[in-house]
Request: fold
Amino acid sequence: MTTPALAWCEQGRPIVKNKDLNSMLKRRRRLTLAANGVAFVLLAGLVAGSAIVTKEAVSRSNLAPLAAMEGETRLVAPTIKPIAAPANLAQIDQFENAPEIRDPLVAAEPVAPKVEPAVTIEEEPVKYAESSEIRYFNGRAIRPGRTITMTVTAYSPDHHSCGDSADGITSSIHSVWTNAMKLVAADSKVLPLGSLVSVPGYDNGNVVPVLDRGGAIKGNRLDVLYPTHQVALKWGVQKLKVTVWEYADGSGPCDFRAIRDSKK
Reply:
């Protein structure tokens, strides 16, 4: 029995009618076109996706160094070669005077100015340290030498005390105004002219010179000078311990002028 669409030949192959053959060919074309369309779409999608991936990869490769440069700044420390140890004295001196090498990555710190150590000047020790008290008179150091108990009176440079010799000049040819009129008269055998004394109650105990002498001043007598006779009278007569001072350098008194009255 044969089908309506097919007829068998003698070799057993199907014989296709023209109508059915055309339908089959059309169907096959449709399937081929559909398959080609699907393949084209897939290929186009694959090509587009590959292009996108490639473009993104290229963009990332180009932007990566830029991002790295914008994100951080890398500093490369210079290579510092080690300094060999000095082998002799010349190299040691050169090594000690070599400039300091500082790390450039460390912030620069202000360098304090070099301060030279203060030079200590040793003062000459006190030459006369055995004295417990040192004063100065006429720019020379003096120290206490001894004490004498003396009868102390007062006088004035006018005729009440000096009579005809009231010319304002002392026996040492010094004016009565010497040392601001703070001076005394003494016996030259006890206290030579130019001696230095301090009398309690006179000139606040300051050291005054012996620049005068008188006929009534003998032995352990001392006469202190005051500007007026009235003030001198107020002193009266006092018995006091008078301190005699000596120059601490061991030299004698200053070179006083010639004594005007040498007969006593």
About this structure: The longest strand covers residues 140-155. The two ends are 199 Å apart (CA to CA). Helices lie at 18-71, 89-96, 159-162, 229-235. Residues 172 and 259 are 5 Å apart (CA to CA).
